[in-house]
Every structure is written in C-alpha cells, then in structure tokens.
Design goal:
The complex is a heterodimer of chains A (95) and B (370).
Chain A (H helix, E strand, L loop, with lengths): L9 E4 L13 E4 L4 H11 L3 H5 L10 E5 L2 E2 L12 E6 L5
Chain B lengths: L3 E6 L2 E7 L6 E7 L4 E7 L7 E6 L6 E5 L7 E2 L20 E7 L8 E6 L2 E5 L7 E2 L1 H4 L4 H4 L10 E7 L7 E6 L2 E5 L7 E2 L20 E6 L6 E6 L2 E6 L20 E7 L2 E9 L17 E4 L7 E3 L17 E3 L7 E4 L5 E4 L7 E4 L5 E7 L1
Antiparallel strand pairs in B: 1-2, 1-27, 2-3, 4-5, 5-6, 6-7, 8-9, 9-10, 10-11, 12-13, 13-14, 14-15, 16-17, 17-18, 19-20, 20-21, 21-22, 23-24, 24-25, 25-26
The chains are: A alpha+beta (95), B mainly beta (370).
Chain lengths: 95, 370
C-alpha cells in the first residue's frame, strides 16, 4: 500500500543483456502497482526494453524470469508494494 | 563500387570486403556479438540502408536498421508482432524475425518480414515500425496452411518475393506449409504447390503442407521461379501452376535435396544449388563428406558438378537457405557460408572456389550489398 504523500519507487535490477536499454545501468528506478504497470513505466523510460522480455500476448518470454524480492511472478497482474525490489533475470538460453 | 558481404551468424554479424580483383578479402566485425542474426539485407532502392532480423538467446525478437551502410544501427520502434489474440483463440507470438525482403521499387521504404512461427509483416518506413499483414496472418485458411508444424528452428515464413512488374503480386513460402501467391497486395492468398512432392504427407496431391526451403524469382524474367524444397528442386514458369521437378535431372547418387538455390542475375536459365544428404535419417550434410555446388545452364535440364577448390573429403557442412548468394559484378561472384563458419567464394560462376573466411560462428545468411 502507498500511503498519501508517500512516493512509490521500486528498484529494478537489470540483467546485462538488457542494459543497452538503460544506458548500461544495472539498477534503475520505476514504479507501478503491478508488475505490468512497472514494466510499462520502464518502457516509457527505456523504449524497446519491454518487448524483449514480454511478448505481444503479455506473456513473460521463455528465458526471462521476474522476481519481486525473492518471489518469482507468473503474470504481469501480480501486485507490487512500495519499496519492493524487482529483479529481472535472463535464464537458461543454451549454448 | 563498394561491395560487402554481410554474414549473419548465430553469434553476431561479420563483413567481408574485397580488393578490386576480389582476391583478398578483409574480415570485419563482429558487430552484435552474441546476437542471433538470421538475415541482413541491403535496400536496393537506397543502398545506404540495411535491415537486420535479430534476437538473443534470452531476449525476444527485434529488427535493427542502418542508414549508413551498417556503421551504426537503430532498433525498430515496433518490431514485428502478431495482433492481440481474441478470447478462445490460440495466442501467437513472434519468436524470431527470420526473413527480410525490400518492397517494390515504386514503394520506397516498404519492407516485408517473415517470422517464426509463420507470420507476414510489413513496414512502410524502412523497417522502423511493422504491422501484421492481416490478409495472410488472419486468412480463413491460415490455420491449415501453417498448422504450427515445427522444423528444428520452428515454423518459418521465408522467401517473400515481390514481382518487379507489380507491387501487388507477391509470393512467399512456409516451412512447413508450402508456397503461396497474392495478386492483390497481400489481401488474399492461394497455395501454389501443384507438382511438388511432399512424401511426408499422406496425400500425394495435397494443395498445401509442403516444405519449400527456398523460393527465388528471377529479377529479369519474373515469371521464372525456382524452388529448393525438402523434396527436390523445382522450376515453374508462370502462368503455369504445376512445378517441374528439375532435380530429377541430378545424378541419382547426389539427389536433389538442399536448402539454398541461387539464380544468375542476368540469365534466368542459370541456377546453382548445394545438394545435401537427405537419405535415411537426413544428416543434412554435404554428401559423403565431399561438398559440391551443382550448376545448370538450361533451367535445370542438365547439371554440372562444381567442386574445384572445395575439400575433397571429410567435410561435413551444410549451407542454409539464406547462406548462398550472387553479387552483381560483370564477372559474377558467387558465395556461400557454412554451418561450420566458413565462407567460400567463386569468381568464375562456380567453376572453382576459395575459402575467404573461416572460424566464424555457424552461418545463417550471406548477402551481398553493392
């Protein structure tokens, strides 16, 4: 929950394959009440980054994992609390 | 005249630039190291422009464009993507941008892209923004034409060809699905597979479901089509609709299986193929470990083996469908790249070959840029 006057801001940890979109930054700030809303804000700040992670049917791509704190999320509808840390992970792409 | 071979590989893009006599070649790159590059294509209408289909092992598919002959690249703002699926409809998502074709000369900025799973997309702004071609992707028969049968790299839409006489006349091919034609700019499509074998289908006369590996249209004689198929090599002279199996004229010990097929840019009757082993369990290597190009000078009536300079034995590579091309030089240059990362060149129409690069990653495409 975000209390009145409180600034919602989440830290997003960015894996190396996506840092070309964030100017090389490994951590950026974004906010949103859900994973989808946060990724929408991330896209506005770093155009093109969302489609590399999320397909046109709003599904997380096969080799991308998204964690909120230590919990892996399964859908973009999952809620995010203020101050949660979002961890984008590239995983298991083969040789 | 500037001349460059663009080499798309499983691990990035490389360039090869020749000296004036095309004897010495300078290797450039890699650019986009680690990216999976299926196709790099120059725009013949504006030669400074290039378009490239890319993804990485982790990340989704995208397109990059260049306005300075490949010195710098910009990512597309809206890469090819299917429309949102309706409720109850199987969701479709582009996994790779596999094929790129510049549009008609009278439509500057227009490009077509073929994807895996099969989808046709169009850009009207040099590849920056892409939209689905609904006439094909949402055709009432699409689900039968492209049922999602997956080749090892997924279902592939490729070989989009634009008739140089008419921008509304299009061909494309799907592995597995067949060859299709549109005469109305992509609003409607029809199969064009009569006479083509599909020995993996129960119906020997199926209208679609075939496995074309590469379809080419001769630029000076656009009614002349060639097709290298999973089940043989074919020629079709429109308006006829029945393909002729020109691979039947190949030596029986070689057969007519392969991925790539290339025509001479100034002679519709001259065509080259790189046969591969399609026996038993389909090794898809050069046959008996002895790679050779075959050339026909009469539209596939007779074939000549061309292996001078190529390894004599124990060379087990494959040449993929986008990995063989010709340049436009008066003394024609021919080039192919192998799955083992070698690029081979001929400046005598295939009579002899020289290796001009080796130790590259697995090569997916070799294209010539003037």
């Amino acid at each position: 929950m975000v209390r009145p006057g409180e600034v919602r801001m989440n830290t997003v940890r960015v894996p190396s394959p996506l840092r070309s979109y964030t100017g090389g930054a490994a951590r950026v700030s974004a906010s949103g009440a859900t994973v989808g809303a946060l990724l929408g804000e991330l896209e506005r700040a770093h155009p093109g980054v969302r489609f590399r992670m999320i397909d046109e049917q709003d599904r997380i791509r096969p080799h991308i994992r998204i964690f909120v704190n230590q919990r892996e999320v399964a859908s973009l509808d999952e809620a995010i609390s203020a101050q949660d840390e979002v961890h984008l992970v590239c995983a298991l792409s083969g040789g | 005249m500037a001349s460059t071979l663009w080499i798309g590989t499983r691990k990035g893009i490389f360039t090869l630039r020749p000296d004036a006599r095309r004897r010495a070649w300078k290797l450039g790159g890699p650019q986009f190291l680690g990216h999976i590059i299926h196709h790099v294509v120059q725009d013949p209408r504006e030669p400074r422009r290039l378009v490239m289909g890319a993804k990485t092992g982790h990340l989704g598919p995208t397109v990059y464009t260049s306005q300075d002959r490949g010195r710098s690249w910009q990512e597309a703002k809206s890469p090819p993507a299917f429309r949102r699926s309706a409720a109850g409809e199987a969701p479709r998502a582009v996994e790779r941008v596999f094929w790129l074709t510049p549009g008609h000369a009278a439509e500057p900025g227009t490009w077509y892209a073929g994807t895996s799973p099969a989808g046709l997309f169009r850009s009207g702004d040099h590849g920056v923004n892409w939209t689905p071609v609904a006439g094909f992707n949402d055709h009432p028969t699409f689900a039968k034409w492209a049922p999602g049968l997956r080749t090892p790299d997924g279902e592939l839409l490729h070989s989009v060809r634009v008739d140089p006489r008419d921008p509304r006349h299009l061909y494309l091919a799907i592995s597995i699905g067949g060859v299709f034609e549109s005469t109305d700019g992509g609003a409607d499509w029809a199969p064009l597979n009569e006479g083509v074998a599909a020995d993996f289908l129960p119906d020997p006369d199926a209208a679609y479901g075939h496995d074309p590996h590469c379809l080419v249209q001769h630029p000076l004689a656009p009614d002349r089509l060639y097709q290298q198929n999973h089940c043989g090599s074919y020629r079709l002279d429109r308006p006829a609709r029945r393909w002729l199996r020109i691979g039947a004229n190949m030596p029986r010990s070689i057969g007519d299986i392969g991925f790539s097929i290339v025509t001479h840019p100034r002679d519709p009757d001259t065509v080259w193929v790189f046969p591969m082993d399609g026996s038993k369990v389909w090794p898809r290597t050069s046959i008996n470990g002895k790679p050779a190009v075959y050339r026909s000078r009469n539209g596939g009536g007779r074939w000549q083996r061309l292996d001078r300079g190529l390894p004599r034995a124990q060379a087990w590579f494959t040449v993929l469908r986008q990995a063989m091309c010709a340049d436009q030089a008066g003394r024609l240059g021919l080039y192919f790249g192998t799955t083992q990362g070698e690029v081979w060149a001929s400046t005598d129409e295939g009579d002899s070959w020289r290796c001009i690069a080796r130790h590259l990653p697995e090569i997916y495409s070799v294209t010539h840029a003037a």
